[in-house]
Design goal:
It is a single chain. By secondary structure, the protein is α/β, with parallel strands linked by helices. The chain folds into 2 domains: 148 residues, Oxidized Rhodanese, domain 1 (3-Layer(aba) Sandwich), CATH 3.40.250.10; 117 residues, Rhodanese-like domain (Oxidized Rhodanese, domain 1). Helices cover 28% and strands 12% of the residues. The protein has 10 helices and 12 strands. α7 links the parallel β7 and β8. It is globular, with a radius of gyration of 18 Å. The termini are far apart.
């Protein structure tokens, strides 16, 4: 690398990324996605994207829909994902930056987390996403410019210590509050509306920390501000004792990214999240405020 790209491990601002374009050690992933239209992300990428970027599809690359009972966006197979990462031209030496249309919640933070699970620590999310890039008048292209493919990313597999399972959540239902944070909007958490999943509500004992609270005008809040808002919700627990969830394991990664940016690393993500939890009707459901 020529030194201009990174190292970045949580967020990178658009001007800093723009200065690193052309660095042979930089790799860009476009993770734009629209839940209601699975083809929209790839279509938008084909029209215009950051120079040198490749598209990481939420449904085809960052999930494995063949895995039943694990939510709407089940984790991909680790070996299959390692092959895909190699196809994108990413190896251990590369600085990866992931972006989506705006705030990192769909699904840049998810791609960031999956790369971290493989053991790739030098990966960051473009703060403000493509919206911030465009607001700064920075270059885009419709041209294909993918880097040469590499062998599968060398990894022993996903770091399971960073992933919480339904059984782990079930075993902790009677723990004192602060161990389980749900990143969905308050109205969904309380069960007042449920536009996506067949059952409304939340896991008993969870606390609600909507991912939108991490943001100010589409970008992540300052690290100190995030920390001041997050620490009271943890109720004195170390981050390593905390599990994060959402509807399907996507915006939970946004909350994890916010915690890492705030200097609170080590939380786990419950990958199945709410949609995986309700796949088993014997699991308890709560409604109303926490």
């Amino acid at each position: 690398m020529n030194g201009s790209a990174g190292p970045w491990a949580t967020l990178v601002a658009a001007p800093a990324l723009a200065a690193a374009l052309g660095d042979d050690g930089l790799r860009l992933l476009d993770a734009r996605a629209v839940l209601a239209d699975p083809e929209a992300g790839a279509a938008a990428f084909a029209v215009s994207h950051l120079p040198g970027a490749v598209h990481a599809d939420l449904d085809r690359d960052l999930s494995d829909h063949a895995r039943a009972g694990e939510g709407r966006h089940p984790l991909p197979d680790a070996a299959a994902f390692a092959r895909r990462v190699g196809d994108w031209g990413i190896g251990p030496r590369h600085q990866v930056v992931v972006y989506d249309a705006g705030d990192g919640s769909m699904a840049a933070a998810r791609a960031w987390w999956l790369l971290r699970l493989l053991g790739h620590e030098r990966v960051a999310v473009l703060d403000g996403g493509l919206a911030a890039w465009r607001a700064a008048g920075l270059p885009e292209t419709a041209a294909a410019g993918a880097p040469p493919a590499l062998p599968p990313y060398p990894s022993p597999g996903f770091d399971r210590a960073r992933i919480a399972t339904a059984d782990e959540v079930l075993a902790r239902l009677h723990d004192a509050p602060g161990w389980l944070l749900d990143a969905r909007g308050g109205e969904r958490f309380r069960g007042e509306v449920e536009p996506i999943d067949p059952v409304a509500g939340h896991v008993p004992g969870a606390l609600n920390r909507p991912f939108a609270q991490n943001l100010l005008e589409g970008r992540f809040r300052e690290a100190s501000t995030l920390r001041a808002g997050l620490e009271p919700v943890l109720h004195g627990r170390p981050p390593s004792d905390v599990v994060l969830m959402c509807g399907s394991g996507v915006t939970a990664c946004h909350l994890l990214l916010a915690m890492e940016h705030a200097g609170l690393p080590g939380a786990k993500v419950y990958a199945g999240s709410w949609s995986g939890w309700i796949a088993d009707p014997s699991r308890p459901v709560a409604t109303g405020p926490a």
